[in-house]
Amino acid sequence: MGRNTIRIVIILATISVLGILLIQFFFLKNTADLNETRFHDVATQALKNVARHLIEYNNKTTGRKTNTNIIEVDQISNNYYVVNVNDEISPSLLEHFLIKEFKKYNLSLDFEYAIYDCNSKKMVYGISLKGKNEALHRETIQSSKKAGCDSDEEFFEDHYRAKVEKKICPLPVSKKYTYYFGVYFPNRSKYYSNNIHTWYVVNGILFIVILFFSYTLYILVKQRKLSEIQKNFINNLTHEFKTPIASIDLSARVLADPAIIQQPKRLEKYSGIISEQTQRLSIQIEKVLQMASIEKKKLQLEKQEIELPEFLKKCVGEFENSQSGDHYTIEVSIPPVPVRIQADPFHFCNVIYNILDNAFKYSYDKPEIKIRVERDQDHVEISFTDHGIGIPKQYRKQIFDRFFRIPTGNVHNVKGFGLGLDYVKKIIEGHGWKIRVSDNLPKGSIFAIIIPE
């Protein structure tokens, strides 16, 4: 699958997922709005019925003829309503009718009711009914029948008159009416959750699907990246092996000429080429084998105490012996006091070799490297400073990724597979150390190994 195809698939898939989420969002919003409207309509109708029952009861018992057309229901806040009755309100009857009407309209919510008191100009009673409305209503109806009352309203009036305590409550008052009551729903959200519970389940399933979809896209992109890395690795491997093999082949054909024995200098030159290119191949193969070995089994370090200054000089000397020519300088600066650390000699020396090799490859002029050892109170720091081309800030974390090489377009003037710094990082982390990369102004880089003591 090509890069453009993957990009198109990801864009279309992202648009599809966003479209589904937007549709779901608007659907849920519409459902919430409908529930809001439905609750308001149901609550308003139930409260109007309560007010009508109160007026009719008062008209029947007192002989008055209060008009039920004056009933008004105002929504003061999201969960607080006031109802104009313009007549006397009995708290016991109010409670009875509220329970009755709420049950009729299936409003199974906790609520608190209060009545406006003209004398104190406050809302009074403030009786809260929580979760026992239906049971209380059923119990009272049965008691009214046993008592022989003509109606449950009469029983409520007689039964509750002495039990209702008049007290001021903090519910808001309304300046619009004189004889009214208020009803407050403290847990109104339950009404919505009960109605959209199914859609919560659907959203949960959709969310899981989106997670799997996102993971699939992640795997797809990762596989594509791995494919590109593998392709670049094979190209680099071919390029790295092709040149020394061609040089060895050419030198071997020259040495196959019997007349070469008569030209000692030429014989020495081509035999040297074979030796040099063979060593180059061996180094590259060793790098690949090192990384394969680390991947195949868990890294096991054989740590021992190392005298750091002497060890650095030894590793630097071995590195210098592997280089041809004298067009470079390596300066080692060490403190006058002994510095001892715990490290695996073999892998630690390879780390030093790889950092130096990296500095050489990316120094187009005469390589100049300074190695400095500094000891602090709680750590030892080994810094490798070069004057090469430097490392752009955006690539400083990626350079430690396997096979990664800083993009240079179609220019392949720097040899390598992108394995050296990956190996360095694994060994550093295996020791419990840290590595830091920074600029060496005006040009170059500084690799610093921090070793806790």
Structure write-up:
- Helices cover 53% and strands 17% of the residues.
- It is of the alpha+beta class.
- The chain folds into 3 domains: 3-195, no CATH class; 197-296, Helix Hairpins, CATH 1.10.287; 304-452, 2-Layer Sandwich (Heat Shock Protein 90), CATH 3.30.565.
- It has a 6-stranded antiparallel beta sheet with strand order 1-2-6-3-4-5, with helices on one face.
- The longest helix is centred in the first third of the chain and has 60 residues, at 3-62.
- The two termini are 51 Å apart.
- 19% of the residues are buried.
What are the secondary-structure elements, in order, as H or E?
HEEHEEHHEEHHHEHEEHEEHEE
Structural domains: how many: 3
Instruction: Assess the beta-strand content as a share of residues.
Output: 15-25%
Which strand order do you get reading across the main beta sheet?
A: 1-2-6-3-4-5
Let me know the number of strands: 13
Radius of gyration, taken over Cα atoms and rounded to an integer in Å: 44 Å
Supply the helix-strand structural class. Answer: alpha+beta
Roughly how much helix do the residues carry, as a percent range? 40-55%
**What composes the largest sheet?**
6 strands, antiparallel
- How many alpha or pi helices? 10
Outline the low-pLDDT stretches. Answer: 144-149, 409-413
Shape: elongated
Mean pLDDT: 79
- N-to-C terminal Cα separation, in Å? 51 Å
